[in-house]
Design brief:
Number of helices: 10
Order of helices and strands: HHHEEHHHHHHH
Number of strands: 2
Helix content: over 70%
Structural class: mainly alpha
Radius of gyration: 19 Å
Amino acid sequence: AVGIVNWFLVVMLNITPLIATLITFTALQGVSFLLRPLPGGKISRDLNELVTSKLGFIPIAFIVALILAIALEFYLRRTRSGIRLRAVGSNSAVATRVGVKSKRVMFFAYVATSVCIVPAALLLMAQAGTGNSTIGDSYVLTSIGAAVLGGASLFGGRGSFIGVFLGAALLIQANTVVQFLGLSTYWQQWFIGGLTLIAAAVYSKIRISTNRA
């Protein structure tokens, strides 16, 4: 449902994707505060054990995420629908002119993205152990940072699932280093923000140079 709303705001109402998703994010946060004003309740221990189970010393969730990233990368690079998705992300108007049904592709993209949130939410629920309407707030900057560090363009048309996976791994290691050094929590946010800013600036410069060439 959230994916459909995002698609409608972007495609039918012609709202900038960043603004549209920010609107739905704010609305969903309002609903979460309505349902759970204060942290409480208890997440099933069975769910916690299932999500945090390991194969040897490697979390199964990590293995599943890696397999999913590789499968999606293959889809994006080696299938016709994946190529259409990249074309629409790069320039939907041009893609439409060459016969791609851009609105349908974007509908699929927004709904698929929302569906991918479900396993991520289950992981976060298991880690939290209780219902908490604000627990995901700290991941907003991290999710953007992982995408940008992984080579994804905020303007669309360029990105890699494996790259984003590696970007997320880099941020996790960075947070671990900050904690290992005994620095305050706000250093994590500064570090992530700084890396994201540098990566965005570098990719933007490369994009401008490529377009001129």
